[in-house]
Amino acid sequence: MSHGAKPLRRVPGATPALLARDIHAQLGHVPVLHGIDLELPGGRWTSVVGPNGAGKSTLLKVLAQLTPYDGEVTLFGQPLSDLPARDRARRMAWLGQNESSGDDLSVWDVAMLGRLPHQAWLAAPSAADLQAVEQALRATQAWDWRDRSLGQLSGGERQRVLLARALAVQADVLLMDEPLANLDPPHQSDWLGMVRHLVAQGCTVVSVLHEISFALHADEMVIVVQGRVVHQGPCNDPVTHRTLEQVFDQRIAIVPVAGQWVALARNE
Amino acid sequence: MNRLPDDTRQRSTRAPVVLAGTLVVGSGLLLLLGAGIGSTGFDSLLDARHDPVAVQIIRDIRAPRAIGAWLAGALLALAGAIAQGLFRNPLADPYLLGSASGASLGVAVALAAMGSSPQTTQWLSRLGLTSAAFVGATAAVFLTLALARGVHQTMRLLLAGVVVGVVLGALGSLIMMLRPEVMMSMQAFMLGSTGFVGWSACAVMAAAWLVCALIAAALSRVLDGLSLGEATAASLGLPLARMRIVLVATLALATGAAVAQTGLIAFVGLAAPHLVRSIVRTTHRWFLMLSSLMGGVLLLAADTLARWLIAPQELPVGVVTAVLGGGYLLWLMQRRGGMVGGS
């Protein structure tokens, strides 16, 4: 591919929530990320896209400090390696992809686990915990089945509960890997609304999405190819669209439909 | 909006409380029954109190045996429940980290060294075998940890446990082949028996149970977090590495304490947590305690049956637990249509 790394672009007026410098990481013994530099604006929604195996999930795990890496990541200017795990967990929530889920736990118990970083060891849930859990379960419309165990739910229902778990943390930064997996269209649309609401409240959202049309709803887009960031820019910027088309070998076309940018598959 | 309907929390804790109460009452009744059953069949405790010999038999033999059986079952089931949570595998059992074959090897070595001559007083050999089993079980777990280079990778840990189990098991068999005279005693150990449990053994197991149960209760939320996956648990700020070490140590202590006193009793550690799960689905705080109580009830019931069924002879309790536990797991497999282990 011909496109080289573009210089990072500062978003005027926004504090970088997450800053990554020269990140190298590997899965097993295979290098996956080759020197990633990234600046993610605070209070914005950034979507990370790229072909399969580009290293998007690994990048998200590096930001969440869930996998070993070389390089430095800072959260609002503070090096994350210095931050105690519990403090980090309060400020940054993570929703993983294809993680096993505790079938025996009730929906309520799962959402309450999101409050762990806020709770003293062995302490009973506080009023704030109860409120956060209820709010999260209502936001994902999982409140009605709060007493059911996770094992009794469908894939999409389960995903909404896991999302509620991440929301219950009430963190400043929310990292989500394929959050729309298994969701039906109404709940995908609810998810978009929810993210918009969170961002309006000042939350920073970073999501890995393979569905380009959904990713284009974000404020910013980071395009990762073979372990390198090849482009970062606003989702409504034609340069971003052209880069996307190029990255996907011109097999997609970014077109406006009903006031939205949509990725269409090209037949040839 | 920010007030919970009051029945919500009550509903989800009622079932565990009822089950816990049932298991405690059941344990009490079984202890009374166990104390009353001997080689002559069932004697009422009320009749026995006028007969000093009967009182002595109950006090020195049947009571510690019944309590010991309960404690061993409670320890094994607690270890099983911890193992299933820690390895996120419903088929994990307390012997997973090689402790069973380590304990057998320890006993084989001790038997071969001491010789199984009738001159050795039984008490001395019991003490020697108990320590040998405990040392063997603990050493095997440490060997597993060393091979797995720590507790960080579940898969490595499981594989290392299998390797240690196979190799130590082979060494144990080798000793049995070279010294055929230890074979009888080894077989008794490998089948498991509560026949030799006295008050000192009860005290050791009770102390171990108390320590393990407290640690398990304190770390129950870690296991809840782990059930959502390792990355999610880590993202919640849980210090997984440290807690895994503590949980593995607890697992080894509970298993070692039970195995050293009663030999390798099969299936209790696997079946008790499954039985609890089929009755009530709850958080680990309840699950660990309920599994432990269930294990106590199961082993005590099996021990009572083992003494009663063909009295005045008795069956090895390990045979009873294997038949009952195996039968139960088979039934579970049938009922779930082959879904056991498929989370």
What key attributes describe this structure?
heterodimer; A: alpha/beta; six-stranded mixed beta sheet; four-stranded antiparallel beta sheet; 8 helices; 29% helix; globular; disordered N terminus; B: 343 residues; mainly alpha; two-stranded antiparallel ribbon; 2 strands; disordered C terminus
What is this structure's SSE topology?
The complex is a heterodimer of chains A (268) and B (343).
Chain A: E1 16-27, E2 30-41, E3 45-49, H1 56-63, E4 70-75, E5 78-79, H2 85-91, E6 92-95, H3 107-113, H4 127-139, H5 155-168, E7 173-177, H6 185-200, E8 204-208, H7 212-215, E9 220-225, E10 228-234, H8 238-247, E11 252-257, E12 260-265
Parallel strand pairs in A: 3-8, 3-9, 6-7, 7-8
Antiparallel strand pairs in A: 1-2, 1-4, 4-5, 9-10, 11-12
Chain B: H1 6-36, E1 37-38, E2 41-42, H2 45-48, H3 52-86, H4 99-114, H5 122-147, H6 154-178, H7 183-191, H8 199-218, H9 220-226, H10 230-235, H11 240-262, H12 268-279, H13 284-308, H14 317-335
Antiparallel strand pairs in B: 1-2
Helix pairs in contact in B: 1-3, 1-13, 3-8, 3-11, 3-12, 3-13, 4-5, 4-6, 4-7, 5-6, 5-11, 8-11, 8-13, 12-13, 12-14, 13-14
Strand order in space, largest sheet of chain B: 1-2
Order of helices and strands of chain B: HEEHHHHHHHHHHHHH
What integer is the average pLDDT of chain A? 89
Oligomer: heterodimer
Name the biggest interface: A-B, 44 and 28 residues
Number of helices of chain B: 14
Proportion of residues in helical segments of chain B = over 70%
SSE-based structural type of chain A: alpha/beta
Spatial shape of chain A: globular
Q: Biggest β-sheet of chain B, characterized?
A: 2 strands, antiparallel
Question: Can you characterise this structure?
Answer:
The complex is a heterodimer of chains A (268) and B (343). Chain A contains eight helices and twelve strands. The longest helix of chain A is centred in the C-terminal third of the chain and has 16 residues, at 185-200. Chain A has 268 residues and is of the alpha/beta class. Chain A has helices at 56-63, 85-91, 107-113, 127-139, 155-168, 185-200, 212-215, 238-247, and strands at 16-27, 30-41, 45-49, 70-75, 78-79, 92-95, 173-177, 204-208, 220-225, 228-234, 252-257, 260-265. Helices cover 29% and strands 28% of the residues of chain A. Chain B is mostly helical. In chain B, strands 1-2 form a two-stranded antiparallel ribbon. The model of chain B is unreliable at 1-8 and 338-343 (pLDDT under 50).
